[in-house]
């Protein structure tokens, strides 16, 4: 079973890599800008978000081919946010997934523009889906709301503002819900929209994704403390070094572990009405237990 | 007649200001981020692009109320591009319309995020239009293509790359067509889309807007040379000071003046099939002759 889901995830990931590789091939663009966009977009990574788009589309009875442009859009939003977050004025990170960050390679100006271009291209991808216009408009609405100032960008702004002081658990939860949770929710919701899912289904996959996202972030904070530099491709305890508030520092590792388990159970429970939520259950458990 | 069109423009502008003022009022957002977004969005300016959206909607037989969200979207794209262009890593400008630039007031991190949030919000606005879903999808497609790496952002990347050397007239024209022309075209096309205009109408307003955009840019370059600091709210000859190639430096003021006149005529000619293109004709002439 484990192998079956791993195979499916690898197959989804291959579809997504192919989609992203071809996304900017058709039209001539200014070469250096396109290089910078693809340097970060095609840098690997787990592709959890776009996989969640495809698999949630399947969960809600849709065809994953129709959802590919939505999956590509989510990964472009995620990638642009990493490029901008790494900038000297923001987190000032030189390494990402073991490689020099975008601005280190291409310079700050091009990195800012590559992020802007990927963010804009995400919305272009949505229009490429071979789906009824109503569903595409709903996707644009969903993604723009969850990725913008009331979602992901708002979370990043809160994160910047909170860097120099200790955040309460409530503040941390809000920050996480916006900064990483919103785009994970968007991923599941876009999958449901692509499938033409019902209002109830959308609420259920949203609950699942929100729990998954929170568990993912808490696990991430735990790993930042316990992993070695080689495993993560970034300095151990880089959050600590910056005096960043994290769930690990606010609650301790043991409480974090309990929370991750509770959230995972809660997320899985939300999918009980679906006939075959096997992949989503496996995914939630795998992420909760991951060691990198 | 002159007064009639000025009145209409002022009325359009008032509608747009109202729309933009209310755009972020409904949902609570992180206050400092919203402040930064509105600092630049509500900083006045000519609002040429959103006015062009509304008036082109009217030209193609549509109701300008339906086009207001499209107009708001275009102005948000324009505003985000100014915020990012002014950043230290880009043009490094401290003043814009006589006021300190966004990053001077809010810091670089918040300025980058305010730009990202406005760019994202632009696509959210498009979904707010009370129009058939097909027209909204077409608007998303149009705006994302013309504002992204094959349009406005691509032009800004070319501009950055060309800063330290002298550009040929052809290079300058390509740069302008992307950097400023694309969004002006998008404005006219979005107006036509909002009105449910025909394919032919869309091609005609695009031709008009491209000519208008090029004339606008050439006139801008001329004014950069001949205006005084007080009039423009930025240092005289700031392009020259940065060794930037401009139409004025490449062609000289006299040739520029001839070109502006030719382009204006060409743009007006493209609208000959419309029953009442009076406003567009007046606008093209006014912009060509403007002294600030």
Summarize this structure as a short list of keywords or feature phrases.
mainly alpha; Farnesyl Diphosphate Synthase; 292 residues; homodimer; two-stranded antiparallel sheet
Description:
The structure is a homodimer of 292-residue chains. Chain A has 292 residues and is mainly alpha-helical. Chain A has a single domain, classed as Farnesyl Diphosphate Synthase (Orthogonal Bundle), CATH 1.10.600. Helices cover 73% and strands 1% of the residues of chain A. The first copy, chain A, contains 15 helices and two strands. Chain A has helices at residues 2-22, 31-41, 48-59, 64-86, 102-106, 108-127, 133-147, 152-162, 169-194, 199-226, 229-232, 238-241, 247-251, 253-269, 278-289, and strands at 95-96, 99-100. Chain A has a two-stranded antiparallel ribbon with strand order 1-2. In chain A, helix 4 (64-86) packs antiparallel against helix 6 and helix 10 (199-226) runs parallel beside helix 15. The model of chain A has no long low-confidence stretch (mean pLDDT 92). The interface between A and B is large, with 51 and 51 residues.
